Amino acid sequence: MEDAATAEISRSQVWQWLHHGRSAEYDHGEKKAITKPWVLEILDAAVARHVTTTSPHKFELAAEIVGKSLTSDSFEDFLTLPCYPHITSFA
């Protein structure tokens, strides 16, 4: 559950930034608006780093669930809710 709690905190922070027009500031002072395409690009890059490991389809499924949660117009109560059907299946 510790990992789920950390994921919840991170997810809620990114969702808030995205939906309240925040920007990220680089070390050299340049700012970039946090947008849906950029959030999904970062998520895709993170998955690409791990897709060659065991069970790459699980990383892709996780990215799909997290991506929808981060970019949806409404805030999902818990990240674990859309994950639950996949966690409890044997596929």
Automatic annotation (TrEMBL):
GO terms for cellular component: cytoplasm. Residues 1-87 form the Malate synthase C-terminal domain. Transmembrane segments: none annotated. GO terms for molecular function: malate synthase activity. One of its GO terms (biological process) is glyoxylate cycle. PANTHER family: MALATE SYNTHASE (PTHR42902), MALATE SYNTHASE 1-RELATED (PTHR42902:SF1). This is Malate synthase C-terminal domain-containing protein.
